[in-house]
Amino acid sequence: MEIPTEFIELYSRLDRQGPGLPEEVRWAVTRLGLCGALRVCDAGCGTGADCQTLADCLPDARIEGIEAVPEFVEAAQARLDGLPNVSVRRGDMAVLSGPYDLIWSAGALYFLGVDKGLTAWRGALAPGGAVAFSQAVLLGGEEPQAVRDFWAPEPDITDREGLRAQVEAAGYEVVDTRLLTGAPWAAYYGTLAAGIAALRPEASPAMEEVLDGAEREIALWQQAPERIAYLLVLARPR
Predict the structure, then answer these.
(1) Which domain holds residue 98?
(2) What residues are paired with 236 via a beta bridge?
(3) Looking at the predicted structure, is the pLDDT value of residue 1 above 70?
(4) Residue 70 is assigned to a structural domain of this protein
(5) Residue 3: inside a domain, yes or no?
(6) How many H helices and E strands in the chain?
């Protein structure tokens, strides 16, 4: 599916293309016990925020960012210029060669599907390698209307137990999980709001439509910030 140029213009300006904070990368690296001369892939790296944090956490590792959108690749390369252990290239994250000690993917496995993506990545992992990815989840119970409206474009969304079952069905063992609510989303939507404000004065009708959609998303999140969540999953093949 072709991505509208107006969407790319807005999101290529952002520090990152979805919710997340550097401490989540640090938590994953520490929890998995990673160090040394590893090979790491950031699959669907966007404009490179997590590549930078991975490079800081793992200074002796080689970090490879893979991203399908050329404008995101260009932004990431400019951002990471000067970091000798990081490279970013355009590519298909469904086809990774490896072998990688870690495949990190913040909010991007969604585009492949958990089963398809984890199955494809299994062959790209080095012995003992791990996958760390974040995915939208429902928290269960009676959801406010704002949450139902927020996730309406994703009818296949499941809860934490359902996501764990998908990971296990793909032949992986879940090492640990971390719920992402509140602050990671606030940081993301703060930069998105700034991007909207910067583009609004001279926006074309097509851009206005993209900006309006992004503002609706922010407004829905603001109504239920502790009920809209990602789950960060750490897993290894069984």
Answers:
(1) 12-142+155-182+228-237
(2) 173
(3) no
(4) yes
(5) no
(6) 9, 8
Q: What are phi and psi of 4, to 5 degrees?
A: -60, 140
For residue 39 the two structure tokens come to: 């090979």
With 0-12 / 13-18 / 19 or more C-beta atoms within 10 angstroms meaning exposed / middle / buried, residue 181 is middle
Omega prior to 84 cis, within 30 of 0: no
Which CATH number covers residue 24?
3.40.50.150
In a domain, 46, yes or no: yes
Read off the pLDDT of each residue in 199-209 and give the average, rounded to a whole number.
96
Is there a contact between 222 and 128 (Cβ–Cβ < 8 Å)? no
Q: What is the pLDDT of residues 113-123, one digit of tens each?
A: 999 999 999 99
Residue type, 166: Q
Pairing verdict, β 229-237 and 100-106: unpaired
Q: Which residues contact 148 (CB under 8 A, 6 or more apart)?
A: none
Q: How many structural domains comprise the chain?
A: 1
Instruction: Judge contact between 105 and 93, C-beta under 8 A.
Output: yes
pLDDT tens profile 160-182: 999 999 999 999 999 999 999 99
Assigned domain for 207 exists: no
